[in-house]
Amino acid sequence: MVNQVTVGIIGAGRIGRLHADNLRVMPSYKLKSISEAYMTEELVAWAESRGLGAVFTDGEAILNDPEIDAVFICTPTDTHASWIERAARAGKHIFCEKPISMSSAETSRALQIAKEAGVLLQVGFNRRMDPNFRKLKQLVQAGELGRPHIVKITSRDPQPPGEAYVLSSGGMFMDMTIHDFDMARYLMDEEVAEVYTRGANLIDPMFGRCSDVDTAVITLTFTSGAICVIDNSRQAVYGYDQRVEVFGSQGAAVADNCRQTTVEVSTATAVTRDQPLHFFLERYNQAFTDEVAAFAQSIIQQQPAVCSGYDGQQAQLIAEAALESHRTGLPVKLSAFAEKECPEIEAL
Amino acid sequence: MVNQVTVGIIGAGRIGRLHADNLRVMPSYKLKSISEAYMTEELVAWAESRGLGAVFTDGEAILNDPEIDAVFICTPTDTHASWIERAARAGKHIFCEKPISMSSAETSRALQIAKEAGVLLQVGFNRRMDPNFRKLKQLVQAGELGRPHIVKITSRDPQPPGEAYVLSSGGMFMDMTIHDFDMARYLMDEEVAEVYTRGANLIDPMFGRCSDVDTAVITLTFTSGAICVIDNSRQAVYGYDQRVEVFGSQGAAVADNCRQTTVEVSTATAVTRDQPLHFFLERYNQAFTDEVAAFAQSIIQQQPAVCSGYDGQQAQLIAEAALESHRTGLPVKLSAFAEKECPEIEAL
Amino acid sequence: MVNQVTVGIIGAGRIGRLHADNLRVMPSYKLKSISEAYMTEELVAWAESRGLGAVFTDGEAILNDPEIDAVFICTPTDTHASWIERAARAGKHIFCEKPISMSSAETSRALQIAKEAGVLLQVGFNRRMDPNFRKLKQLVQAGELGRPHIVKITSRDPQPPGEAYVLSSGGMFMDMTIHDFDMARYLMDEEVAEVYTRGANLIDPMFGRCSDVDTAVITLTFTSGAICVIDNSRQAVYGYDQRVEVFGSQGAAVADNCRQTTVEVSTATAVTRDQPLHFFLERYNQAFTDEVAAFAQSIIQQQPAVCSGYDGQQAQLIAEAALESHRTGLPVKLSAFAEKECPEIEAL
Amino acid sequence: MVNQVTVGIIGAGRIGRLHADNLRVMPSYKLKSISEAYMTEELVAWAESRGLGAVFTDGEAILNDPEIDAVFICTPTDTHASWIERAARAGKHIFCEKPISMSSAETSRALQIAKEAGVLLQVGFNRRMDPNFRKLKQLVQAGELGRPHIVKITSRDPQPPGEAYVLSSGGMFMDMTIHDFDMARYLMDEEVAEVYTRGANLIDPMFGRCSDVDTAVITLTFTSGAICVIDNSRQAVYGYDQRVEVFGSQGAAVADNCRQTTVEVSTATAVTRDQPLHFFLERYNQAFTDEVAAFAQSIIQQQPAVCSGYDGQQAQLIAEAALESHRTGLPVKLSAFAEKECPEIEAL
Questions:
Q1: B215 CA to chain D: closest CA distance, Å?
Q2: Which of residues 100-159 of C touch B (CB under 8 A)?
Q3: Burial class of residue C208, CB neighbours in 10 A (0-12, 13-18, 19+)
Q4: Are A187 and A171 in the same domain?
Q5: Which of A18, A201, B209, D5 has the fewest CB atoms within 10 Å around its CB?
Q6: pLDDT-derived band of residue C220, with 50, 70 and 90 as boundaries?
């Protein structure tokens, strides 16, 4: 492992296969094996088409392989923490999809074990690698916008998920807004002090039946007094709406949506242009590539992860606080909430 | 007064003179007189240059003129309610600058008297007439965006006012955000149920000394569950930032800033375009003309005002509730608040 | 005439009335009288509604009025030169609509007489006053684009004129492109050396029957070697398309179309925005006001006109050369052509 | 060769290596070997890093390999025709970089031989695959713009090439504008009838010393009467300027430049956004991938090439005619010119 990281992927669902395809063509990786608890003929055929000889039903086989330097954990969320612990004990570096878990206490324990094992852990908040948002981050860091006062994040999905997904998702805040919570922390480089959630069920009564919301505006107050507002919807009929704005004492920067082409068509009835790129696979295509490239670089050059376990934990805590605010109708102070949820968090 | 309304202006400050210049060139108006308590040589010269023979120190002289059909109240806010009452009792139609007063009880009484006198009362929320926001309203009314779910209003001033202005302004919510509260109600055509304010003092400690804020994010929840979020700043260094977005079940519409020219310049160092129009006189130039044209039309055609006294009162109530939320750090339900502040509001 | 110019308008068609309405509300003007050879009841009513007592059938009555400082010549083109001569001999300053005439020789004589009479003459190339193009001019003059290499002018009408208009228009180059020829000279501040025209009849065979074109691309070569390309169409179904680009050694500047609002609407089927402003009355509304304001300022401050008789003559010459190029299919050198058409041009 | 094409690359310069890197990760290709007359240690190391065992100094070795289905000709232009002939005689399908040659007669002969050999020949006009221009093509083909009247192509390089390159380039029309000539034919799906060139040497006297131009506006007239205008510059200081517009009887479509991000930054001094992507490797990154994918698909599915030898020949003819027009200062009819240059062209 001088300039190449040998990896295995645990979990061969949509995101696991996406990573596999990206890893295959990157010289910094050697993808050796993959595991999937629910083996199908279709999966075997897929693995073969990618030249992946080793397909296991149990990820332990990957962890037991001494050639493996690192693993990608792409299993269902409720198994993430367990796999982190086992991978850490096997001495493998870890790339884990978000969220780390549904429970702050569980996350804390997993992170503690990874820390003790001395392995690198990166959480899959891929949007940090989006070229647009990365430019916002650079502008903030370079001080070109002065001191940030207001951050606005618009994050709307093109179409709502099905009931089964909603029931197992952990709710909109944990499943969807968690990306925006991470984005807010990433851009501000500062911690959130308070959360206020105004959620609603406006799109489909199914969400209400699942005790979930489909529409929300969440206000985050940072310790400096700066304010972030996030608006979410499970259904933007015109496509995946992903915009971010940072407003500061010296200026503002706005990242607009991406579109397939720049073409504008003018006719007798309308002037039209492309809708936003359809969904996350299209919009964050580059970011998915760049986050795995960054993971290899962190391992090889022994640098911190671009998105650490602590980052993953904080986003999860904010999501839990947002849900609490939604339930009570009141603002929630994050410090008190964190202490209640995972008293050992300070130990990290 | 068949096709022309004879008017007098009470108060010859900046806004009074702005209306005077607009009225002068409109065939639907005959501007006859103006009054100003603080008479100066400069004012006399100005009035002469506009061919305005009659300049009084007391607005009563205008109210006593039987030829006058309507008055424009452009005095300091703390005298608005009193002038409304006196003008109503004199049988004059009333165009009153915002806010109607600093006290809900006072506003209720003034509106009651105007109602009993049977005169038309229009409040100067000029932004309702801005071509961009009018188009948003039309899209909402025509159902082209479906049922509105989220409204986002960005409203930032180019430079902060001085301390004297801040002290007499009634605070940012009553002075500045009140426009946005009216815009939210105008676009949604629905009442606000709850207000949550997150304010901050980030620009100049002077605001804090005045017990005011300079930065805020306010969340309004409508009775239907739809959510509006407003972000305000007293200082956007790049110019007057006035954008509105309506997101609904069938689509979204975004009104961007206006700029002096469409020119984009590309050089070796940057690609640049114009900053937003500097401030409200430039941006809402057309709206100031259109609101006074609408007032004449309402009088001549005996139609309701485009922005009624009730609208003015509601925006004022929301501003008061926003301040209460800022003070307590908690969301404020508008119904309970309104009852407490002005129990007679239901009578209107 | 210290700070106010007393004017009469000769010709009360569309453009004459447009100027009348603009002049009426400008303090630098006193509009005293108007003349129109084809008197109608509708015209009398219009004049009355504007408070214009004096409506003559013969413009001579205006020229004979010693109070009149300046006249606006808004008659059919074939009478422009004659009115310029008569107004000049009467000592009146002259604002003349474009083109000055259909004949270079006739134009030269009229300009010679105006010059000898020492009156100010401004030609109505209103686009010089458009805020967008004015900004381009300022950028070029300030050297921000370096040395200009390529100028691109797109000029397309929303709908074709009728046959009667076409027959009396002098052809597309003299009627429509002449504005673009003036814009090219204005932006470059340099003379045209050669013209090449590629015209076509693609929209309506009527244009061909009238020996005219409805579509054209014209290449102008400047004496410095810089190149301008103009593309014209008599029918852009999406509206009035008026864009200009200047490309130079240090950068490029692009002036886009103007639109009624900035609103962008995104739905499940399309992302749309406003079409360009419909036609010249909407697009150049401000420019029409500004050019007459500039005329008064030039008279009062005894400064050169923003668009001189010489400018009018040059644009006319280029239009004639463009037609010659279209007829022969060959590039036409302007120097030889000018000498042939109006040998006395150097005398000016 | 059922679903995979085995290829060799003749010429390992910049473009040959670019293709190599694209081919390597495409499942439809097996890249077997590469040849380069000027072997260096650096090249050997590069080939090794790509896992390319076979690196020959003579392309014949590739042509002699019976496993090779197709070759990419990436050698200097003056050897293209010769390699086409040899590859065709060896029965290999051919992807040839543009232009095919510097001589129409030579090109005709090479195409004739390829035709007789029955091999597929694709010319590397990669811009046909650019997503923006492909959308323009689809709009034209679907009739959404009606009958095309005017096509405008802006094509400007970010920085001028060196003298050695200029001397061997065949001149700007053959080296650079040839892409635009192909784009014009591609979008119009029609042949060019006449060419008029207005060229200039405005950027660097070096171009003049090389008997070349650095700035040009070229007018193409199509057989239908539609007109295309191309403007070229060897130096746009703000980046690679690649815009195309199609204007037709039912509407217009404009393809703007591509930029790295959508971020717009507003400060007290300016509102800025990204410059265009730097040069062809960045802008046409996707197009380079897509053109080689299309070549494999054409071979596998036995379909015509997306850009045929005939297309390459026509663009070359137009370039020669453009140079002739520049030299004579007169428009050049393509039919007469083609006959003179390569009488056998009809035979294809």
A1: 18
A2: 131-132, 135-136, 139, 144-145
A3: middle
A4: yes
A5: B209
A6: very high
State the distance between the two ends of chain C, measured CA to CA, in whole angstroms: 28
Both B154 and B41 in one domain: the answer is: no
DSSP string, A28-70: TEEEEEEE-SS--HHHHHHHHHTT--EEESSTHHHHT-TT--E
Task: Return the pLDDT at D53.
Answer: 74
Flag the least confident range among A22-36, A85-99, B241-255, C218-232: A22-36
- Checking if the pLDDT of D348 tops 70, the result is no
Asked whether residue C164 is assigned to any structural domain, the reply reads: yes
Contacts of C271 in chain A (CB under 8 A): 238, 272-275
Complex ipTM: 0.94
Domain residues for the domain of A317 are 128-279+312-347
Residue B109: is it exposed, middle or buried by C-beta count within 10 angstroms (0-12/13-18/19+)? middle
Q: Mutation test of the interface with chain B: which of C3, C244, C263, choosing the one with the most B Cβ atoms within 10 A?
A: C263
Exposure pattern of D61-97 as b/e (b: 16+ CB <10 Å)?
A: bbbebeebbbbbbbbebebbbebbbbbbebebbbbbb
- Record: contact B226-A251, CB cut-off 8 A: no
Of A231, A227, A252, nearest to B245 by C-alpha is A231
Q: Which of D238, D271, D276 shows the shortest C-beta gap to B275?
A: D271
Question: Please, which residues have CB within 8 angstroms of residue C24's CB and are 6 or more apart in sequence?
Answer: C31, C50, C51
Residue type, A175: D
Exposure b/e, A202-231, CB count within 10 A at least 16 = b: bbeebbeebebbbbbbbbbbbeebbbbbbb
Q: C-alpha distances in angstroms, B181 versus A162, B230, B304?
A: 36, 8, 20
Give the number of other CB atoms < 10 A from CB of residue C30: 16
**What does the pLDDT read at residue D338?**
80
The pairing of beta strand B227-233 with beta strand B271-273 = unpaired
The CATH number of whichever domain residue D99 belongs to comes to 3.40.50.720
Please indicate, yes or no, whether residues B111 and B135 belong to a single structural domain of this protein. no
Q: Is D343 on the interface with A (CB under 8 A)?
A: no
B293 in a structural domain = no
Say if CB A243 and CB A254 are below 8 A apart: yes
* Same domain membership, residue C195 and residue C138: yes
Query: Chains meeting B at 3+ CB pairs closer than 8 A?
Result: A, C, D
Residue at B205 is within a domain: yes
In angstroms and rounded to an integer, the radius of gyration of the C-alpha atoms of chain A is 20
A254, B256, B269 from D273: Cα distances, Å:
10, 16, 11
Q: Does D274 touch chain B (CB under 8 A)?
A: yes
**Integer angstrom CA distances of residue C265 from A216, A266, B144:** 21, 15, 9
Question: Structure tokens of C58?
Answer: 């013969």
pLDDT score, position D196: 98
Of B145, B257, B266, the CB nearest to C251: B266
Residues C14 and C100 in one domain: yes
How many CB atoms lie under 10 A from the CB of residue D285? 16
Residues 6+ apart with CB under 8 A from B108: B313, B342, B344, B345, B347, B348
CA separation (Å) from A347 to A84, A339, D87? 18, 12, 70
Query: Could you tell me which chain D residue has the CA closest to the CA of B264?
Result: D272
Structural domain total, chain B: 2
In a shared domain, residues B277 and B252: yes
Residue A173: give its domain's CATH number. 3.30.360.10
Q: Would the CA dihedral through B276, B279, B282, B287 be positive or negative?
A: positive
D18 touches chain C (CB under 8 A): no
